[in-house]
Amino acid sequence: MSGNIKERLRHLEFPQSTRAALDHLVRCYADTGGGIPGLGGGTENLADEVVQDYILNLSRKRPGQRNLTAVQELQLLELLCSCLQDAPEMFCYSIFSIIFGGQVDSHKTGLLTKLVSLAISVGCGAVLGCAALWMQELGSQSQAVCDLAQKLVDDYCLLFPNVSMTFQHLPSVSPLFTCNFITAVTTIYTMLDRSRIPPVGLVEYITEWVSSDPCLCSESVRLIRIRSNFTCPLYGLVRWCVIGPLLCKDQYQISIPNGADAEVESHEKMLSLLSKLHISVLLSLQAYKSMELNQELFMYGDIYLLAKIIATHYQNSNFKCDEDSQLQVSLDRLGQTIQVAMITGSLNGQFDLRPVFEILPPNRLLHIVAKRQAVIKREAMDIS
Amino acid sequence: MATASESSSKTLGPQDLLNEVRSFVQGVTYKGKVKNESLVQSALLLLKSLPAARHAVLEHLANVFGEAVSMHLMNLEFGRNSSDPGGEEDLETVLKDASGVLHTFIHSHPQAWAPIISAWSFELLGHISCKYSDRRGVPHPGSLNELLQLWMTCTPTKLLIEVTTECFAAMVGGAPDACVDALLEASVKYSPHFDWVVAHIGSCFPTTIITRVLMCGLKDFCHHGRQQGHMDSSSGQEEKIPKMTSVVGILGHLAAKHSQDIRMAFMRLFEESLKAESEAVRFTTIPFLLQLASMSPLLLQIMTTDTLKALNAPVLNKLHYQFSQWKASCPLEYESFLTLVVHLLMKSDVGAFQALQFLMYNATVSKSAETDPSLVPVVEVQRTCAILVDQLLRELEQMVFCKYKVSSSEIPFLSSLCPRASELAQMMLHAEEPRTGWLMRLVCCTVMFGGEENGAEILSLIMSQAKTSQQLSQFVAVQSLIEVSLPRVLIGLSQAVMDKLQPNRQTDKLKLMNNLLELLDWEQKSDKANNRSQLRDCFQSHWDSLCQLLLHSNIMVAIATLKVLNIVGRPKRLTSTSLLHACGMVLSLFFRILEFQDNREVSGLVNECKKSTKQLAREGLAQSILVHFLLEGVLSAENKALFGGKIDAFINKDESKFLAEENKSHGTALTLLRSHSSVFHAGVIGQGLRTPVSRLCLGKEIITRNKRLFLELLWLSSREQTEDKNQESEVTMDTTDESHSNKTSYVLRVPADLCRQIGSLIVELTTPDVLYNNRFWPEEETLKMTVERDLLVWKVLDDNPVLWDIFQMYAGNLLIMCRCSPVLRSLTATLINYFDSSRERLAQNSPKHVDCACILIRCLAKSHLLPHPLGLTSELFPIVTSFEAYLLLLTVWRYMKENPPTEDPEEVSRRICDQRHLEPVRAILHNNIEHAGNLYSRFFPPVRPKMN
């Protein structure tokens, strides 16, 4: 049978050959009954060859061979999409991973990116689910995932903002994908300097997603039961909310002389979005506690880094602490986050946060938080 | 359309999208099943709603655009296809929709979409223009305008280029480098078919394109320069740097409309390079600019005009310090750099003159000339400039000398300098070494390039402007150099000079004539074997016209002209008219010269007149003209006073001069003789009565001198030219020659015809009418009838004492005296009457009359009209009484009455004095024997006894 399929495929032209190859893959997995991969007895090697020859290499640019045109590539993507959609759910990821798994290479990632983009548009949950797992496997902060996320941002936020209903409702199609996507995006757009500010459209989507589903950000953590590592978008989002106002203020001051109305508008929109996002993050933390996953989402170092950035910013600006409203906002948010995190158990309450508070400019809320922490600590010591 | 489909996309669910994708893919795969238009509609729908389909849709659109262009061309080639009437229009409508969608994208999200769409459209445009370039309807890529017109009338490409322009506009603000780079890349890839796109976009965004293109070119040049390890070489660079060609091409397209922008961008680039931090930019900008200039004449022009202005001394010094290290490390490259500069200079046209001035100024500017030492270029810069000038001149000379005829396109430098050659020549005259040498070589090159006419003009300019001999010597230098290739330049020069001498021209004629004279003089004195053609030969053909200047109001000009004419020599053949003119003018000048007081000067000048007269008098006609004018002139009211003549109080020299000037101001040409006929403005009306002005009194010495000079000239003019005829071949007459001929024939021989003319003329001039003008002496009784007439004749001679001298000069000539017989008769009659009635005892008491009588008798005796003893009677007048004088004269009269004057010398010699006539003489001698004893034997020699 194995020789048979290769022989047959060789005589077929592009759409038919790929379709037949995919059919073969699906049938393979169906025949083996979803057995443990690797025990297929040579089927895996054969499948791998078929995938290379009739799916991946078709669109790879190779000298001396005809490449697929862009239209044919689109057709290929459509075939893949339909195939995964129609495949039984249990083999879905297996098929996916035999195509896109394994060694990461740019061509493969490129094709995957296009596939994911198409899947988002046509609302193909199967593909997105697989992609989410793929991301989780690679780690949402890895280069390949970040590249994919960047392309998606380009497509859906820069080139075609507001074009796709499905992107807007992405969490409903695949919450895990959304969660990993957010993690990757916060890795790309670190909000640490001006070139790393996320586009307003993206922030808008994310705010929408996070606020509509407080559990969204914990999706990836939930998988801790089957995977050893996890990534969580919450720290990245906290960073956006805390540093964002400061950075936006700088940006705003720079663009003010040019006086473009659109820029002023987007600046204000960004600030209000961040504010909304902040409350959503706090709510997410609260929801996280109720899920009882008991993982620490924040490290002490993360908090210290944020404090350090604020402090540096404060030193560089020539405003006084209480005059700078945005500084107070970010200090407040930091204080609120620390407080909520400690209470929800996503930040270890045992850390001594005094060094953090010491480097920060004075803020009433922080003061209260610090006092409160001291009280808790003393109580804990008393109990012990 | 676009908005309608936009609203429909909103309603498109995920499943619909997937279906749309499927149908689109099917439609594209199986062509012909689905209509093209609906396929495009579907593609646009996908483009608007499905990010992943972007590439596929753009690819499909590219195909559709290509199809549309093909169809358009097909229709152009074969005429409109009647079977498919609406095909093209439908397609075009669809394409318009597509470009509308693209426009919307660019507008709504310029930063994201513009790079994608512009890359796509560049690629597509390049592809299309390349693919269809060999179609019949498509013009050759060389003819940019036709190409532009074709593609701009073709709807698909027009739409595309609009989209591209839109992208460009969106990107220019944000990332200009990226888009220009893309443009250049495409230009390199699809050159030359892509040029029209560049031209179009360039004309839409001239400033950005120019600046960016230059920057990109520089970057590329820097990069390549570093790779190759050397900075420039004039050849083979084009292959190495493909971008350079397209940079030049693009700038070339833009040159026509935006040369000002290019200029500014160039300057900015240059100025930035001076301030640049990076070494690479500093070192490569100037070679880059030069390289560009070598590839495009327009850029070269900008270089030579604008950039030079920026290169003042501080900048030059700065450049020197920047490049000195490089110069020291790679001498060979430095050499080729200089060669490049020289070649660029030779190619420059508009800015050639500035470039030259720039180089020469910087090569020779001295510290003392500038007050601020920072404004003086350092020595090395000066030396480099000098080297450049030298090399340039050497190259030019090589080109000019090696080729027989150089076409103007070959050396733009020279062709642009040609019109300014005269300016150069003036600079040359007033420059100092080493500029003079340079300029001289340059002038020679220019002239040889420009041809004979140019050369003649330059030479004439030097001749008319040179103030010192040194300046004049440049004439000879230039002439001998350019004659190598322009052998006929001197002929042209002579014409040019004559043109400058026209009366209405504002030339300094005195300077010009003096310079010409100096050159001729030098030529005469210098070695004849000198390898140059002679000015003399050229000017001889203009002899006639030069003569006109003898009447120039400035006498110095006239004198210089006379000298020039003497050196040039008269042509062998002259028409009688010009001979007449020449004689008249020389003589008129002669009379003007006589007005001078300084004896030395006058004699020198008169010598020139004599030389001229001698040259003229070689023909009988000329002689008679000369003599006629001389005699007429000496008696004319204007000149009379010069010879001691009495002037009518009313004729006043000053006023006549005034009138002459008045006339000159009316007339423009001096072709008329200075005679009464030339005074056509006969007087000034409205000044009332003319007041008698006391006449100018000349000193006796001057009058004597004038008389002498006049007689000398008259002598020269009237003597027979026998000996000169042998010497006619030798044109110049040396002074030694002259004295020699004087010695051999001291006696004045006058040709017979001339004698008769002279005699008749004198008679005509001195007698009031012709009534009694026969040669016979009548009865003494008739004297009473002619008293008045005789007195008139006497008065003429009294007024013009010079006539007596003329008589004496011609006394030995029988023919003249014979013709003058009426005058002599009248004079004798007057004297007879005078002495008859004189109250003085001694004749000597009326000395004037005695002198006249003596002269009269001597004239008669010398011409042998009066035979031996009677001819001696003049010696008796000082001692006799008035009555005896009367008797003596009466005796003469009687003899003359009986022996009338004859022109036959034979008969005269046969005549012997009758004893009858000797009786009164003898008696008078006896009467005064105490005084005349010693004379007696001369009158009556003792009769010797006949020995055998």
UniProtKB/TrEMBL annotation, chain A:
Alphabetized InterPro entries for the sequence: INTS15
One Pfam family of this chain: INTS15
Protein name per Swiss-Prot or TrEMBL: Uncharacterized protein
TrEMBL record, chain B:
Recorded GO CC terms: integrator complex
Organism encoding this protein: Potamilus streckersoni
Residue intervals of the Integrator complex subunit 5 N-terminal domain: 15-223
Record-annotated Integrator complex subunit 5 C-terminal domain positions: 243-903
Domain of life: Eukaryota
Example GO biological process: snRNA 3'-end processing
Coiled-coil intervals, chain numbering: none
A Pfam entry, by short name: INTS5_C
Protein name stated in the entry: Integrator complex subunit 5
Entry-linked InterPro entries: INTS5 (IPR040316), INTS5_C (IPR029444), INTS5_N (IPR029445)
